[in-house]
Amino acid sequence: MKNYKALKKLAEKATGGAWQYCHTSQRQRFTVNWHYVHAEGVAIVDWPGFDGLNMKDHQIATNAKYIAAAHPEIILELIEKAEQVEQMNARIAHLEAELTRIRNSSHNQLQRLDQLLGPSNLL
């Protein structure tokens, strides 16, 4: 995904802070909670599973754990790292182009020097 701006906007608008996966067998629901200081959790995602999908509880639990792990702060950090990598790649490409230009220029200058200092020009 290269549309970092859209993902960043979504992450910035989402509930901040740490998210946590919870499962209560009494209600048979899988919950992703947001915990804030001096308070109980507030459900961000609370569902019995994915509608229309015949998934096993362990797969639903795995998905809920993934959602909790991919909370907005993590997404924003990953976007920042991806943008830094893109900037470094652009800098590397610029330096490689400059190196190629210098190498070609040096090669041309050496060829010209060989022509000027060749055996027939020494006499």
UniProtKB/TrEMBL annotation:
Domain of life: Bacteria
Pfam families, alphabetized: Ead_Ea22
UniProt KW keywords: Coiled coil
UniProt feature coiled coil, ranges: 78-105
Protein name, per record: Uncharacterized protein
